[in-house]
Amino acid sequence: MLKIEQLQIIYENFGLDVENAGFSKGLNIVLGPNGGGKSSFMQGVVGYGQPDIEQRRIYWNSQPLEGVEAVISYLPQENPRFKIIVADYLTMTAGNVSHAACSAAVENFDIAQLTGRSIEDLSGGEFKRVQCAQVSLENKPVIMIDEIEQGLDLKYQHEMMKWLRDEGNCRTVITSMHDAALALTYADTITLMKEGRITGPMPPWAVTSEMISACYGLPLKIESKAGIALVYHSGL
Ligand SMILES: Nc1ncnc2c1ncn2[C@@H]1O[C@H](COP(=O)(O)OP(=O)(O)OP(=O)(O)O)[C@@H](O)[C@H]1O
Ligand SMILES: [Mg+2]
Fold first, then answer.
1. Contact 215, 222 (CB under 8 A)
2. How would DSSP label each residue in 59-114?
3. Sheet containing strand 172-177, strands side by side
4. Which residues does ligand 1 sit against, CB inside 6 Å?
5. pLDDT digits over 74-84, tens only?
6. Structural domains of the chain, ranges and CATH numbers in brackets
């Protein structure tokens, strides 16, 4: 379990304070409005990106989380691009990976046609799939992805959610996203983040229309149909 005893970040105009939150194996999704603190939270957990951290007491399986790189694969909301071919980018962060593992990742993320291309020339969704393939090859116990669905078309949004749900069987996956319906359909837990404070993690069925409306400041209704969540604007 990834246990956040306290994470406090203070910027000039924004403060984040998360206390006593535990994330276990499974697909844990963080939802919340723009500027709510999702990216700051993830940066604070890994300690990258120089967030103004005041307090950071985080434990992985009851031990203080120090060697983050051994534990967490982190994909930030914006990742820089540079001139490197996809095949090399895939294994760049993974150390020694077998040819079979690479081939499986290429197939899983449907990127066979991209392996000889430069990272700089990929479309947004293609780059996202390549980045997720890279993360999968790192094979770490925690996967943290900021804005998983960003850039992905409808088909690949579902493919990625299925991938993360499967990874959740053996890893702790934490991802932020903006598509609340997709999140409520696939998540094992939902965490709502607003103004640097969280509610959760909680099971998706515990998230009410009132909670999600208050989180986004918009009248929203959640309905569930055959295991698929619908979230719509109820004030139109
Ligand atoms: N380095 C920084 N210095 C000062 N303020 C910052 C910094 N990074 C983020 N902020 C501010 O902190 C707040 C939270 O930003 P954050 O990026 O964590 O939100 P978010 O929930 O990820 O939003 P989005 O959905 O738009 O990605 C915002 O008001 C943002 O302007
Ligand atoms: Mg963000």
1. no
2. EETTEE---HHHHEEEE-SS----S-BHHHHHHTTTSS--HHHHHHHHHHTT-GGG
3. 72-75, 142-145, 172-177, 26-31, 189-194, 197-202
4. 11-12, 14, 32, 34-40, 77
5. 999 999 999 99
6. 2-233 (3.40.50.300)
Distance in Å, CA 33 to ligand 2 centroid: 9
CB neighbours of 18 closer than 8 A, spacing ≥ 6?
Answer: 4, 6, 7, 8, 41, 44, 196, 197, 198
Is 55 in contact with 8 (CB distance < 8 Å)?
yes
Residue 68, pLDDT > 80, answer: yes
Distance 195 CA to ligand 1 centre (A): 10
Considering every ligand atom shown, identify the ligand nearest to the alpha carbon of residue 30 and give its number: 1
Burial of residue 55 (CB within 10 Å: 0-12, 13-18, 19+) is: middle
Summarised one tens digit per residue, pLDDT across range 182-225 is 999 999 999 999 999 999 999 999 999 999 999 999 999 999 99
Cα–Cα distance for residue pair 16/44, rounded to 1 Å: 10
Q: How far is CA 132 from CA 15, 19, 31, 89, in A?
A: 30, 29, 20, 11
**Tokens (6 digits) for 105:** 């990742």
Instruction: Retrieve residue 147's tokens.
Output: 């804005």
pLDDT computed for residue 214 by the predictor: 97
